[in-house]
Specification:
Blueprint lengths: L1 E20 L5 E22 L15 E7 L11 H13 L8 E8 L10 H16 L6 H9 L5 H9 L4 E6 L3 E5 L6 E6 L6 H7 L11 H10 L2 H6 L6 H7 L1 H13 L4 E4 L6 E5 L2 H13 L3 E6 L4
Helix pairs in contact: 1-2, 2-3, 2-4, 3-4, 8-9
Length: 311
């Protein structure tokens, strides 16, 4: 039996632009994504099939047996869970190798990242399983290969692989979000995240976003240069999420939450992450972030404070 403990970090979108529609029906994006210090805990235990396990004459089930446990009872623990899908994908690709793919894989997920919040919590869990099985099965895959596998699970999974398996903390993502340009410099700020008590369907937002005309778009090259130079005036000026056009119009509580951040806390910038409903504010000090988090919580919102540099 072998085991591994991993951290599956969440992310925020410092910017998000929709640049077109692809032949496959998906949208082309340009977005700068940033890892945050909030993470889920992933514990994986691998028990390979022993050659003499059938010595008692009982026929045991062959192949990979997956068991997932989580501290959130409403989360699925079967094929609907990205961690489960990631394990199945690894078995499909590498299960015929000696000592791989036949046995019991137990995955324990302690969720700290809000669910259905646009913070890539599920994608991070899937990425952690890819990374974990690569190590437990001694496959020797590099980060690029793991990111390629992650593309098959979801658009955010390659980014989650990148920031969990390397020292990079941010990336410019294009395509569906899976084409990554890692950034040597990332944001170094404190943040407060908060969300209303509901989720927002990403498919719904993208289904309707073409009906809107965005007057302001982020200049992501300028944003990247601003990060490299530590010029947060440039960074904040280009922190624009065009998906807000739809979500803020159709989900009034998200719009209200943005207004609360701006009016009741000293946030340098307030933005929605992904397709929502999570809203985050940027702060220069830990003290400001903690106080802002208390303010938001006092208004009965689910809120967390974190940092963007891994602290």
């Amino acid at each position: 039996m072998t085991e591994i403990h991993l951290r599956a970090y969440g992310k925020i979108n410092l910017s998000l632009d929709v640049t077109g529609v692809r032949p496959d029906g998906f949208h082309d994006l340009s977005t700068v994504m940033q890892r945050i210090s909030l993470y889920d805990r992933i514990h994986m235990v691998w028990e390979p099939e022993s050659p003499n396990q059938e010595g008692n004459g009982l026929q045991k089930e062959k192949g990979l047996r997956i068991r997932i446990r989580t501290n959130r009872p409403y989360l699925p623990t079967d094929e609907r869970n990205l961690a489960y899908k990631a394990a199945l994908l690894m078995e499909e690709r590498f299960g015929r190798q000696a000592g791989v793919g036949s046995g019991q894989l137990s995955i324990s997920i302690v969720k700290n990242i809000p669910v259905a919040a646009g913070l890539a919590g599920g994608s991070g869990n899937g990425a952690a399983v890819l990374i974990g099985l690569n190590r437990l099965w001694h496959l020797g895959l590099n980060t690029r290969q793991l990111c390629s596998l992650g593309e098959e699970l979801g658009s955010d999974v390659p980014f989650c692989v990148l920031v969990q398996n390397t020292r990079y903390r941010a990336a410019l993502a294009t395509g569906r979000g899976e084409v990554l340009r890692p950034l040597r410099k990332s944001m170094k700020k404190y943040i407060v995240l908060a969300k209303p008590p509901f989720g927002v369907s990403t498919k719904e937002v993208f289904r309707h976003i073409d009906e809107y005309h965005a007057e302001c778009h982020p200049d992501n090259q300028a944003l990247v240069q601003g990060l490299a130079a530590g010029d947060y005036e440039v960074v904040c000026r280009n922190m624009i999420n065009v998906l807000e056009l739809y979500t803020l119009e159709h989900y009034e509580p998200v719009k209200k939450l943005k207004e609360i951040f701006a009016e009741k806390t000293p946030a340098e910038k307030v933005l929605m992450s992904g397709s929502g409903p999570t809203v985050f504010g940027i702060y220069s000090s830990e003290r400001e972030a903690k106080k802002a988090c208390e303010t938001i919580r006092s208004l009965r919102y689910e809120a967390y404070w974190a940092s963007t540099d891994g602290r």
